[in-house]
């Protein structure tokens, strides 16, 4: 997938010569966003594999996958908050950030829609309560992260706000699907 390749490329080079300090603000923010998208894509593939027969195995993996996503979004949030931004991020970087944010939103939207759609399968497993807990954490942290990103991209914030408004109700719905 495009996101996975981009991430592999960024990580590949960063381990040798590019440190966090030498990433441009745009690259640092994109890396933070894409690290999350990469994990969400993984969890999406797991969720797509879910069936009644494998629910006991895959259900647990999905819960773990969401746990990893929450942890990475939390790290991503602190990274985009502590990175030293110039007062204005160059327009071209802002647009690259918005593109990356778009994938972030769309993949979360797909992932959560599948998980909500598989409510009856997942609710028949012992993972209902842990899934509910992790989805409620996800709602809070993704919402905060989305607004942190939106604040950094005045040049395309209208689009970013629109994308977030698309995901937000799905996040809320996911958070109440597994009580
Ligand atoms: C946050 O920054 C640290 C230090 O540069 C880096 O190792 C980590 O991968 C980053 N995490 C995210 C999610 O961007
Ligand atoms: C999904 O199922 C396919 C086919 O069984 C398997 O190859 C793949 O590894 C699974 N993916 C995940 C993320 O579980």
Tell me what the structure shows.
This protein has 179 residues and is mostly helical. The protein has one domain (2-177). It has helices at 2-14, 25-49, 55-82, 91-117, 119-123, 128-152, 157-177. Residues 45-46, 49 line the site of one 2-acetamido-2-deoxy-beta-D-glucopyranose. Residues 1-20 form the signal peptide.
Concise summary:
The protein has 179 residues and is mainly alpha-helical.
Question: Which key phrases capture this entry?
Answer:
mainly alpha; binds 2-acetamido-2-deoxy-beta-D-glucopyranose; 179 residues; signal; single chain
End-to-end CA span: 33 Å
What is the helix fraction of residues, given as a range?
over 70%
Domain count: the total is 1
What overall geometry do the principal axes of the alpha carbons give?
elongated
What is the residue-averaged pLDDT? 88
Q: What's the helix count?
A: 7
Quick one: biggest sheet?
Answer: none
**Assembly context of the chains:** single chain
Count the E strands: 0
Low-confidence stretches: 9-19
């Amino acid at each position: 997938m495009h996101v996975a390749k981009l991430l592999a490329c960024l990580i590949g080079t960063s381990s040798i010569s590019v440190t966090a300090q030498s990433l441009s603000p745009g690259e640092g923010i994109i890396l933070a966003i894409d690290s999350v998208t990469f994990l969400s894509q993984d969890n999406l593939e797991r969720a797509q594999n879910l069936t009644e027969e494998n629910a006991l195995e895959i259900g647990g993996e999905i819960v773990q996958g969401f746990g990893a996503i929450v942890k990475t979004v939390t790290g991503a949030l602190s990274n985009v908050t502590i990175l030293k931004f110039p007062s204005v991020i160059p327009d071209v970087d802002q647009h690259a950030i918005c593109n990356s944010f778009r994938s972030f939103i769309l993949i979360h939207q797909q992932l959560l829609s599948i998980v909500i759609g598989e409510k009856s399968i997942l609710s028949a497993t012992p993972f209902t309560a842990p899934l509910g807990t992790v989805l409620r954490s996800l709602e809070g942290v993704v919402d905060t992260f989305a607004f942190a990103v939106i604040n950094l991209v005045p040049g395309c914030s209208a689009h970013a706000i629109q994308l977030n408004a698309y995901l937000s109700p799905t996040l809320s719905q996911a958070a109440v699907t597994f009580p």
